[in-house]
Design brief:
single chain; 403 residues; alpha/beta; Rossmann fold; 3 domains; seven-stranded mixed sheet; globular; disordered N terminus
Length: 403
């Protein structure tokens, strides 16, 4: 039995080295550690093999909390490879289908490994670190996801819903994104419905507009966008946040996303412009051309505390502009280049108190209504006005005091 196990392990080592479709998964630290262990095991170097085994399991603990099958499944499903590209093009040749199936069978054997199988025949009866493997039908799950790739995505988009651009302009996943849901946002249902309806159109492949969300700070503009993404991510929606100083990256970003089967919101938070700001012209050019028509899977959602996006100093001239009205019209026109404009106004007293009561109920706070109202009003007056954000901060202060 031990001889048969050794033959199976040796065969697995050779077949892993022959991977072609999924070759990039071998660069993963866990699988690279496994291959190194298998190589040392094959040459009967027990001390070195046990050292490699410990390194392999340690990497597995860090990567997937010790679940080998779950780790391999994630690697396979996130892999950008020739099979994915062919599937996106709608033309997977028969030889490629056979190759993918054969390699998935090899990786299935990795999923089915146990510490006993790996260490059999090493001549060591002492401690070896355990690991687990949740049962998975790797091929069935992989082909299920690729058949619905417009919902599941692939590569970095398979496991993440929120992204940012790094200093070089590359798309990077956000480790922990804002978990806010629409059910967490009290009032502003009309505004939320406008954003939702437009996003549903995007997901359905229908023409969808770029949206400008304006209003006072703390009224829930950014939270609305993030909540919509959280609600619809399982339908294939992703969000990429772009800072104002990265606006010049958007045309390249649109080109990069054009052939992706998922749908994307490019999100620009707190958008406004200063005098002689080159980004103003960049943003105008992005919105002006038929950019969205060329990339039907991408829309731009921007928030701003300013109705016309431009600070007053930008429109202040020294009187040397002969066509002053034309200049003013040019400045104002930027906000009009968004297909939809949603305005979030500050809540009145009753709306503010409704938000406070809903948040307090959601947190399980016991309170006397009139006392809560009085405390909430004092908090708002002290902080300079009523907003949804302030209501959240007030309730958080009550929770902190309770704890």
């Amino acid at each position: 039995m031990q001889e048969e196990t050794a033959i199976m392990i040796e065969d697995l080592s050779m077949r892993l080295k022959a991977l072609a479709v999924f070759r990039s998964v071998l660069a993963d630290e866990v699988l690279a550690g496994l291959v190194r262990f298998l190589e040392l095991r094959d040459v009967k170097d027990a001390p070195a093999a046990l050292d490699a085994y410990g390194s392999f399991v340690a990497a597995l603990y860090e990567a997937s909390e010790g679940d080998l099958a779950a780790h391999v499944q994630r690697l396979v499903e996130d892999d950008e490879n020739i099979y994915i590209r062919a599937a996106l093009a709608g033309d997977v040749p028969s030889w490629l289908q056979v190759a993918a199936q054969g390699e998935l069978a090899v990786l299935q054997e990795v999923c089915d490994l146990t510490p006993d199988v790996l260490c059999a025949g090493l001549g060591w009866s002492g401690y070896r670190a355990p690991f687990s493997s949740t049962h998975v039908d790797l091929a069935a799950e992989y082909f299920r996801r690729t058949s619905s790739i417009d919902t599941f995505g692939y590569g970095i988009y398979a496991r993440n819903r929120a992204f940012v651009l790094d200093a070089s302009g590359a798309i990077c996943p956000v480790g922990t994104s804002d978990p806010v849901r629409l059910s967490d946002l009290v009032d502003y249902q009309r505004e939320q419905e406008i954003v939702l309806d437009n996003t549903y159109a995007l997901l359905a492949g229908k023409p969808a507009a770029n949206i400008l969300l304006t209003g006072d700070a703390g009224t829930g503009k950014s939270s609305t966008v993030k909540a919509v993404v959280n609600e619809l991510s399982e339908r294939g929606l992703r969000i990429i946040e772009v800072r104002k100083d990265q606006l010049r990256d958007i045309p390249r970003l649109l080109d990069e996303l054009a052939d992706n089967p998922l749908k994307f919101i490019i999100f620009i938070d707190d958008l406004s412009f200063q005098s002689n700001d080159d980004n103003y012209s960049t943003m105008k050019a992005i919105l002006e051309g038929s950019v969205s028509a060329k990339t039907r899977n991408v829309v731009i959602y921007a928030t701003s505390n300013r109705r016309h996006l431009v600070k007053e100093s930008f429109s202040e001239r020294d009187g040397d502009d002969v066509h002053f009205n034309d200049t003013m019209q040019e400045i104002i026109s930027l906000s009009e280049r968004f297909g939809i404009h949603v305005s979030f106004s500050k809540p009145d007293k009753q709306t503010y108190l409704d938000i406070v009561h809903n948040l307090a109920d959601a947190e399980g706070l016991a309170y006397e209504p009139s006392e809560l109202d009085a405390d909430a009003e004092r908090y708002a007056l002290y902080r300079g006005g009523r907003t949804a954000r302030l209501a959240r901060q007030f309730v958080d202060s009550l929770l902190a005091a309770r704890d």
